[in-house]
Amino acid sequence: MSNNPNQYPTSAPAQEQPHQPGKQQAMHPEPEIIKSTHQGSNKLKDKVALISGGDSGIGRSIAVLFAREGADIAIIYLEEQEDAEKTKQLVEQEGRQCLLFKEDITDPDVSEKCVEETVKAFGKINILVNNAGVQFQQKDLINISNEQLDRTFKTNIFSMFYLTKAVLPHLKEGDSIINTTSITSYHGHDELIDYASTKGAITTFTRSLSTNLMKQKKGIRVNGVAPGPIWTPLIPSSFDAETVEKFGQDTPMGRMGQPSEVAPAYLFLASDDASYITGQVIHVNGGEIING
Hints:
Residues 1-28 are annotated as: Disordered. The protein has 9 helices and 7 strands. The chain is of the alpha/beta class.
């Protein structure tokens, strides 16, 4: 795929996947994970990053980019073993180690387990990326079942509390927490009401935790990234084919984004380049102006 932003696909062919979180290898075209022009410069040398939802899409891109910058990686994923193994392979090709945890992060005990095993393997955790999420397209509020509502909130926001609580005792001054929120946190979404609500909670969680940790003078920074329409397995596994075919075309740039275009925002926030930044959200959305 070209590194010229004007030559990325404007959209994808109509397609659907029957089950979330979706399979990256089943997408056509497959998302771009890392830009071939990116030369690592040890921005994260010998750091350790724990990434939820790290098997595919934005999570995979973050994992590979962090590895290129010198970090060892641990990823938590729900069930897509083939995607997870591919991410591990890509990380190892960058000369770094990668742990895989096939777990359901809606279980509070999972966070403790994954954190303990990561620290046992690598001796530390420096970066937490809360990235896992689900979304379910519903045209009417009354169609959002109690079961869907429960799953969306447990996966998208409850898990961030569980995982952050487990990681926090291991973080030190200069370490970083980065949460994946969404453009929907700022302007809502009429067919993703429960999802957008969790993303609003994530934005507020990010701001509140950053203030809390600064008041405690722990020196741990907390920031967020708010992607717009990015081509990941979540898209064909949560929208109908007609929506997928038009995905991203209503942005000012007129196209969907790639994971490779989002991950550098996480790298910036994780690195010392962002040493004076906390409680903020970077908007990677194809040009929509967000005041918030």
